[in-house]
Amino acid sequence: MTNPTSTRTCAIDAAIDSLDGAFFKALCEPSRVAVLKRVMQLGRADIAEIAEGLPQERSVVSRHLQVLLEAGIVRATKVSRQMFYEVDGPAVVTRLEAILQHMKSLAPFCCPGAPK
């Protein structure tokens, strides 16, 4: 028989892992969100175009883009010596749907809410 406290603890840990993953960490810094917004506004763009409208140095913008890339929020395409970035909409939607499904499966065990 499974211990209810152990099940709840495992569910809580799994929920926190989902919410504390690279996807949400990439979106928790305002300057990185500003970089993401700029990419959304421009569509497909290189680092020079993206950095042009932002107060950060190009190297900082580049690092933010790398974090967004690693989180699967943007995708990069290399053309000759230039790297072009764009938001990967389908990947973002897929990731959010997966997180939602995961949380729905865990909620009864870790955070059931008020009794009905």
TrEMBL record:
The keyword Transcription regulation applies. SMART domains: HTH_ARSR. SUPFAM superfamilies: Winged helix' DNA-binding domain. Keywords: DNA-binding, Transcription, Transcription regulation. It comes from the Bacteria. CDD domains: HTH_ARSR (cd00090). One of its GO terms (molecular function) is DNA binding. InterPro entries: ArsR-like_HTH (IPR011991), HTH_ArsR_DNA-bd_dom (IPR001845), Metal_resp_trans_reg (IPR051011), WH-like_DNA-bd_sf (IPR036388), WH_DNA-bd_sf (IPR036390). Residues 12-107 form the HTH arsR-type domain. Gene3D superfamilies: Winged helix-like DNA-binding domain superfamily/Winged helix DNA-binding domain. PANTHER family: ARSENICAL RESISTANCE OPERON REPRESSOR ARSR-RELATED (PTHR43132), HTH-TYPE TRANSCRIPTIONAL REPRESSOR CZRA (PTHR43132:SF6). NCBIfam families: HTH_metalloreg. This is ArsR family transcriptional regulator.
